[in-house]
Amino acid sequence: MNITSMTFTALDIIDMIIRGKINPNPIGQRPPVSQGTTKSEHIISTFLDGYGIGMITLRDIRDDVEMQAIYPGTDYLVIDGGHRCRALAAFYQNKFAVRSQVFKTMDVNLDQFSIPVMSVVCNSEQATAMFRAINTVTPVNFIEMVMANEVSEVCKLVRVRTKAYEEYGNDPLPIFDTAVKKDGKIVSAHWDTAPNHRRKWDEYVFIAFLKAIGGGNVSAGEKQIEPFADTGSITKTAIAVADRFFEDVLKVRKSRGKMYNTDVFAALQLVWFGFFEKNKAFKISDYDAFTKSFMLAYSKLTGNADRSLEDTIIQVNGESVLVKEFVRKNIKNFANADAQKKCFELLYNIMGDAGIIFRDENRSVNSNVREEMLALQGYVCVIDGLPLTLEDSVLGHDTPWAKGGSTLDGKVIRKTHNRDMGSVTIGEYRELLRLRGEPLAA
User: Do the domain assignments include residue 176?
Assistant: First the structure.
């Protein structure tokens, strides 16, 4: 690591930001902690009064091949001071007023304001460590520290799901969509907080990844997230499970008709992964029925309108606790697998399986089992009764797999029948063939 102390004028920094030579918002930079321009106005007001803006820490990537691939043509990435840099550039571009005046109406020479800069040549791991060290005494939360890692593949998989990044050319998951209000303010489309406020959405994706990997409501707190983010990996299967979860979260939001707060989302995620733990191939087949049953259980166990469970005591780890206090406290206790599982049990006891289909985790059987089944059928198709070879056979469900059909109830049929059946049952398909006058098995 090589550190150099320099002094730039305010205009130097603004010029380099506008020309793309300084990136004040690299992918590892924490997002703004507040909406609007109030904080920026305060930064510039203090600066114009002669109190300075503090030291800016930059990472020099001019000769860094790996970083140039991500940030082509950029000389510096901001490690610390991103909000201050963005405020300077926005002020210069007349995007907000200070003391009721924008920059172009002021008699201000930004070339006369000096800003101390620490320039660091380092690798990504060192840059991450420096960001975390600098921010140990500032109000940066755990997940913001974790997401400072710009080269972690897991962090990238998280980022691309919660926000569109120019560096990645991605679109976020629809549940994390944003909208622009008439006043230009960017707001969440499906959450009652600012977009990814304090990187909460990133945390939710980490939790979904860990629970998808663990097969249900496993512990997914800071002790699990940090090593997973820095050195962990995730399979495509687990990624698909997490993405399916967020698709269902969006569909429940639309059925419910109300934006998520942190409590409702927390309860929904433990319910979803509780069902996933019971049956990896489960499906929400009726979102209205599921949402109503979920909200009924959630309201009874956390709300104030129904007081029927207010004094109900349950036993948890040998201790007597009030059921509502326990659920209210532990739906967001992501680090405690046992508490999450207990919350699911309590919610499930009220909501049941409404709107849920439990599907066979094995959609079909292997050729050895299918051959045995075909032999027991006398090497004929169970639908048309005509001779059938193993090569031309497939397992058919009387109840389609998508609707909960089990391989245990399946029969071996001709491939063409399986293709033509669609979503009807074997019995319904046989009736169609009978009406057409086609051959049927006795």
Answer: no
> What is the number of alpha carbons within 13 Å of residue 377 lying toward its C-beta?
27
Alpha carbon distance 28, 146 (integer Å): 9
Tokens of 272: 């979803």
Nearest to 264 by CA among 299, 288, 290, 293: 299
Among 89, 116, 139, identify where a domain stops. 139
Q: Read off the CATH number of the domain in which 385 is found.
A: 1.10.30
| Orientation of helix 337-351 relative to helix 287-302, angle to 10° | 110
* Final residue in a domain of this structure, among 324, 357, 390: 357
DSSP calls for 180-205:
E-TTS-EEESSBSSSTTGGGHHHHHH
How far is residue 134 from each of residues 128, 229, 270, 373, measured CA to CA in Å?
A: 10, 20, 35, 66
Q: How far is CA 394 from CA 20, 272, 410, 418, in A?
A: 59, 32, 10, 7
Query: CA–CA separation, 238 vs 232, rounded Å?
Result: 13
One domain, residues 218 and 343: yes
Look-up: residue for tokens 């913001």?
144
What pTM does this model have? 0.74
Q: Please state the domain count of the chain.
A: 3
Same domain, yes or no, for 37 and 107?
A: yes
User: Which residues, 6 or more positions from 28, have their beta carbon under 8 angstroms from its beta carbon?
Assistant: 77, 127, 128, 131, 147, 148, 149, 150
Range(s) of the domain holding residue 334: 199-357
Is 106 a domain residue? yes
Locate 88 and state its tokens.
């300077």
Q: For residue 421, report the phi and psi dihedrals to the nearest 5 degrees.
A: -65, -35
pLDDT, one tens digit per residue, over 318-376 is: 999 999 999 999 999 999 999 999 999 999 999 999 999 987 666 667 889 989 999 99
Residues 85 and 119 in one domain: yes
* Residue 239, domain member (yes or no): yes
